[in-house]
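Inputs:
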Amino acid sequence: MGDESVPYFLGEGTTKTYQIPISHLDYKFIEKCTDVKHLEKILRVLRSGEEGCYPELTLVCEKRIEHLDPRSRALRKDKPAATASDFTAEEWQAINSELMSWLTEMNEDDKKSQLLRTDTLNERQDNLPPIRCSSSCLPTNQNKKLQNKQRSKKNIPRDYSEWDKFDVEKECSKIDENCEESNSKARFFSRPSLPIIEKKIDTTGMTKREKIFIATREKEKGNEAFATGDYVEAVTYYTRSISVIPTAAVYNNKAQAEIKLQDWYSALEDCEKVLDMEPGNIKALMRRATVHSHLQNYQTAIEDLNKVLSVEPENSMAKKNLLEIKEKLKSLKPVSEPQGKGKKILIQEIEDSESGEGRGENKEELERRGGYKTSASAAAARAAAAEPAMGNAHRKSHGKGGGRARDRDTHKHKDSAESGLKKGASEKKSEKHLSDNEGEVNGYLRSDEKSESAEAEISKPHREGSQSAGGGSSTSLPPTAAKLKSEGNEFFKSGQFGEAVLKYSEAIEYVTGLGEQSPDDLSVLYSNRAACYLKEGNCSDCIQDCNRALELQPFSLKPLLRRAMANESMERYRQAYIDYKTVLQIDSSIQAANDSANRITKTLIDQDGPSWREKLPPIPVVPVAAQLYRWDGGGLTSENKPSTIDINREEELQMNCEEATEKFKRLKNEGNDFVKMGEYEEAANKYSECMKLNTEECTVYTNRALCYLKLYKYEEAKRDCDHVLQIEDSNIKAFYRRALAYKGLQNYQASADDFNKVLLIDPNVLEAQRELEEVTQLLHLDSSAGAGSHQTHGKKITIQEVTEADEQEERQFATSEDAETHHVPAEEAVPKPVPRRSSEKLRVSEPPNAYDFGQIVNALNANKDKAACADLLTVTDPKTLPVLLSNKLEGEILLIFIQSLEHYIAGKDPGLAYQHLFYLSKAERFKVVLALLSKNEKEELQQLFDLLSESQSDQYSLEDLESLKKVYEL
Amino acid sequence: GAERPQVVSHVQQALSYTVFDCKWVPRSARLLCLGSAARGTGVLQLYELHGARLELLREIEKPKPIKCGTFGATSLQQRYLATGDFDGNLNIWNLEAPEIPVYSVKGHKEIINSIDGVGGLGIGEGAPEIVTGSRDGTVKVWDPRQNDTPVASMEPVQGESKRDCWTVAFGNAYNQEERVVCAGYDNGDIKLFDLKTMSLRWETNIKNGVCSVEFDRKDINMNKLVATSLEGKFHVFDMRTQHPTKGFASVSEKAQKSTIWQVRHLPQNRDIFMTSGGSGSLHLWKYEYPAQRSKKDSEGSEMGVAGSLSLLQNVTLSTQPISSLDWSPDKKGLCVCGSFDQTVRVLIVTKLNKI
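Outputs:
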């Protein structure tokens, strides 16, 4: 440190170095100065002593810098090495004794290893990998280029450019052709991004000490990877460490990494290994409790935590967890409102169970996906243990069903929402062109996210023998890929699209690398990645991925829609038009596609004139098999449609019995798939068709009943259940659904009776207990308060189930909060962007992230609930607005913000309103959105500014306001 | 604060020659000092740590001054030392019988400045290999089982001026196929050679001579690379994400005003490393990862995001440059360094567990 200059005084008012005014070398100045750079210069001047020696002032200056920037380099001083005086006596003692004990250990070890030395050496030598470029790995003739350089010509040096010229791929393919051995190598080149690390270490001939050394090292590598968040890598290194010497500590660490990966079963296994080795291991018990609680084995979790507490009664972590789990367990039992937490209950029933695996992972994915607290009864636990390889696809439906408010008034809107697209929202926006478009895209995507995540849940579909609607049977994703995919979904859900892309890419690479034929899964992966790209605005990659997905699964809806949107946003209207049209051929009920197609038609007419159609590329004809919905989207059920019947009759005539069964199966699966997609009308149609083939099959009726429940057609649902109960007088599902139907029909007494029957058959069906409780309350209310609305509290429960061919099913019961808004406490649940005519006021809490914020804003926007929006803005820190809005700012949002600010906030707190306006202008897309504001909207904005200039606040001056007005182009 | 690691100078040993490199003998409390005696010969001294003193076990004199050494390519049982000398010879010594080398090759026309080994000591998958970098401008990879010729050689094009290669390091040896060599040159070039694909994978220039390069770990999927330079700056590259045009993201830090001679990562924690400086100082650093290690650029290509560095401790031990530095692979926090004031010091760095 220090400057070389000799101290002397210039007397010119500035220091020699840096030309700092002498007056700055002053206590007052230094204490007020906030410019770290400047202070650092002052410090250097002071330290150099060129202006005289001021130790006090120097100290003050150092402190000031430390206060402003603790990491400032100017604070670094030369220091001598620490000595005994820098430590307490104990510390010093500890340092020395630790070293001494290590030295003794090393010396002992040295003697031992000398004894062991000779006998193991040769063995080790044989295990070494071959010498680079030696014939064993690369055949000489195949590798002329290399060999010439390296061997025959005895190492003529190669220059860098030659290195570059070396064609790896070519060399590899050459090798590939002739040498089987190097196949693995060649394949490895094609996917270099996926590191392949051996899971085992060859330890032949190693001494115990060496093994310990290696095992420790691998563990450390695992720890480092863990610390960096590379949990997969961490697990690999822990596994390697274990392959050398299995120790409790490493199993424990591995379990922790697996918990992070939500790989509950492996984590459980590892915890158990630790506990085998060290029965009282606190960490392992804690971790096993975590795992059990995620696997819904609450009782076991509690036992583990109790064990921890018996050893460490003060363990606060254990106490906390225990309390949480007990609460969960409690909330499972009677009606008690889930307290402030989005709660989702999953029940799995088994009928005629076959046994199989891959179950738990799905379940865990489920939890992860929604992030909701899954809980379940003992039945669920039982199911988890014995659950067969079932149509996990069922689960798909829950994401959508979760959040539906059971509001009859709006059920029509919901129908459209359920078709996967926010029809209702788009209808409302019909006046505004561009913002409308974007709102819709977002609306679509948002709803799509749900199905996306749901889609991932069927990542391991065991659709044995059954065909999926999309055609072609799918193989299950390998666990690695499934994991990657679910991680991807997770990232997608939290808005980290870049991360999600990474995960999906890895999964894709993995799947393609395996070379197995699983077009379904691969297609879904591509489609998911496309969604990410679309979110990121990376339209070209999105299109590419959609293309791939469509190659694998032609006429698959999502990729088509995504490609259409990407094309549209790239202003490739013709391609977009084609895609929308194709989508509509497959499913004419997709409103967004309809609207978009119409919109694009207008654009194309503007662009190409009346003969625009001639310039279009041909629209692909969708084969009948791929058409999901050929009839008017507004229709109720197709039961009475003559066309259906005709088709059926014709088909029936042509089909022999076998074909009929086949068709029945197919239709049913299609129906199930529709349920998964939340398209209950279509599903009901399919089931109705099924019934024409076979009236004896109860599951179809129960399934259709579910659809009717979803569609609020309680009467029809009841009828279906009645039918089933005539055939099977103890069908639990039929009872359950009929109970719900009765409830919907406000026949609470009958409903309660049915729930009681359900409980009589299986007392473990907790949601039946809960429903019963609720219905009993309603019954009570009904009788005491008379008419009173049955929507007394926010608890709306939906049940969704689909039964597939193998007769297994699950039920999901969800409280009214949607999975997506699980961060919002129950009382503050925000409805989905489905128009709601309910007068109940939304209460809003500060949204923790951009995603939730977006959800809330959309909900507010759909309701045009300015008051709630004002609440939202009040609790939101203006500074965070740009982050929260991310790239989702739209005309509608801007407008509702402005209106809320104008009507609710500006009067009370003009400062806050100003702040919001200020930070709003910093948000992404602000300029674009501003440019699209209509005249009326501009006026609204002007009014707000007028209001602000009238009211005074110390938060802003009139000049500030003027300049902000300029930003808002007023 | 009290929780910061402290650097304790445990033993100081004056030497009668100039020490260029010092190394712990793996799985022992012994260390080696390599250097040049006043009369122009090479010296190799084996010390053992006994409490607070170093006991000289063996002193071997060789005809040529020894510049650098490594145990990286030997087995834990053999513990043969590979050295590079002023004459361009690569020798491998059995320290039990050091009279004749077990392997010897005149690998370079001029001094071997730097040497590194991989595939031994349980560190790095694949064949045991040694890499040498020399003033003659070449970088060569050797397999101790193959006599006379390197298994790979990297040399500038004929006619292109030869740069002095100052430092070499292995990395990415996480499976049997993958392996890279990183080399730093006097003109600031850093080149990354992929030994699997036999290609120049990446190169950059840090403007000043590259004194030392090291991967945080040799035996994992390339994670980080530290390169130190002549004018006191060092760069940490995040090696996980290579952007097609921008290469690897990096963060740089100026440790001192003088050359940073050496960088060595703590064997037990890859994110902690020590730099040794021309002014006789040592700096202990910790790398902190960013929240997200990679992001997409505008074209959708993946690019790395560099983290940040924090200085954990700094000490000044000497007025002369500290030219060599080595952490004990067996005892966390134990460290040896040699400086041009002809002193070797055993250091204890405390509280590394608490970081």
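Remarks. Chain A touches chain B through 81 residues (CB under 8 Å). The first helix of chain A runs from residue 27 to 32.
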